[in-house]
Amino acid sequence: MSIRTLIRGGLVVTAADELHADVLIEDGRVAALAAHGSTAAEAWTAGRTIDASGKYVIPGGVDAHTHMELPFGGTSASDTFETGTRAAAWGGTTTIVDFAVQSVGHSLREGLDTWYDKADGKCAVDYAFHMILSDVNEGTLKEMDLLVGEGVTSFKLFMAYPGVFYSDDGRILRAMQRGAANGGLIMMHAENGIAIDVLVEQALARGETDPRHHGEVRRVLLEAEATHRAIQLARVAGAPLYVVHVSAEEAVAELAAARDKGLPVFGETCPQYLFLSTDNLAEPDFQGAKYVCSTPLRPREHQAALWRGLRTNDLQVVSTDHCPFCFRGQKELGRGDFSKIPNGLPGVENRMDLLHQAVVDGHISRRRWIEIACATPARMFGIYPQKGTIAPGSDADIVLYDPHAEQVISAETHHMNVDYSAYEGKRITGRVDTVLSRGELVIDRREYTGRAGHGVFVPRSTCQYL
């Protein structure tokens, strides 16, 4: 059992409230909150008291989109479940939802069991799984029902990557129909991969091989078109839809139009689309390869639409799509051919800090920070209020956050297993000080005290955001 713990003197910030309160933790859960200095709070005793004066006391972050150890493009993501969840903890994230992968010709069960084996006994914080559907057929449709029953309640399909993850509209429709029946939430990578492949082929034939061309061939209109098509297929199926890593103004407009009709359509964006742009992809000497991901980075003017979407709730969640590949030996596989650069960026350690910087910069409020980074991802994927809030009965996944500390993001100081930072040299205000996962200290005043194997698998209910 974890030590009875009392957190005193901080400003508790959740998606719903901000209050100066003390938090009592027993048996790994929040036992009670009471106003700081109140008779109730003053009467509490504990084996461990943590002074939160001058700090925010916030729920641990829920990153609903990570790819630890993902095989891709002849290599694998460089973070293991051990290194990736440790880095998540350093960044104030206490739950990840990673993607188990079904390989073509294999069952969902085989893919899910492979990911269970990768994560079991390795994780510093708690984890759950989505399931990538690469091969929709009668057998896998039936398996979807079984997975929902064991707490894997969301399924990702791809309109991109022909020959790897791609599903055609018929397969997508069948999966959506099954999701409508069993409560599973369909997640969509919305890019027209068939058309993109034509543009890739044509660009390479013209000798356009540099990383910046990755962004140029993956056109904004092909993200918007696929987003529109996914929405219409979901309407036909009578299914809710969650569009991952939305990067462009035109795609946000498709989501907003659907939501204006009252449709259960949701959108996620990622820090890279809010803080980076095609300027990074165009960095000289192949440095742009560090920023190759899909959907790609967009021209800077798209950022305003993404921030607006987050404020108006046309975008509900900020996740990382954390999928790191080292520059040396991995990103370099694409020298001379941008289409061979492994797609993905590191970010699981940076999300909470970057979004706090967005509070400092006036893009979002403090409570909206917690909403898009903690509460809504927990609700969207069926783990609220166990995760994503600070309330009696919730898991004691709690972060003491210093809103005044200043830091410079750098690969020299980060804990992700990757040899560069996508945000190298960025100065930000705010930093994680202390992290508890189910009442156990994982980060104690900027010292790592966690351990591999503390994190456990969290079965999820169906989407609570409908």
Write the layout of secondary structure elements.
Layout (H helix, E strand, L loop, with lengths): L4 E9 L4 E9 L2 E7 L3 H5 L4 E4 L4 E4 L1 E6 L4 E2 L2 E2 L4 H10 L2 E9 L6 H12 L6 E7 L5 H12 L4 E5 L10 H14 L2 E5 L3 H13 L6 H6 L2 H18 L3 E3 L5 H12 L4 E5 L1 H5 L2 H4 L21 H10 L4 E2 L32 H10 L5 H15 L17 E11 L18 E11 L2 E5 L2 E2 L18
Parallel strand pairs: 1-4, 1-5, 6-9, 9-10, 10-11, 11-12, 12-13, 13-14, 14-15
Antiparallel strand pairs: 1-2, 2-3, 5-16, 7-8, 16-17, 17-18, 18-19
Helix pairs in contact: 4-5, 5-8, 8-9
Write a concise keyword list for the protein shown above.
466 residues, alpha/beta, 8-stranded parallel sheet, 14 helices
Give a summary of the structure in a few sentences:
It is built from 14 helices and 19 strands. It is an alpha/beta fold.
* Straight-line N-to-C gap: 36 Å
- What is the 3D shape? globular
Please report which band the strand proportion falls in: under 5%, 5-15%, 15-25%, 25-35%, 35-45% or over 45%: 15-25%
Computed Rg: 21 Å
* Residue-averaged pLDDT: 98
> How many helices does DSSP assign?
14
Structural class call reads alpha/beta
Regions with little confidence, pLDDT below 50 for 5+ residues: none
> What is the number of E strands?
19
Assembly state of the chains shown = single chain
Largest β-sheet summary: 9 strands, mixed
- Please estimate the helix content: 25-40%
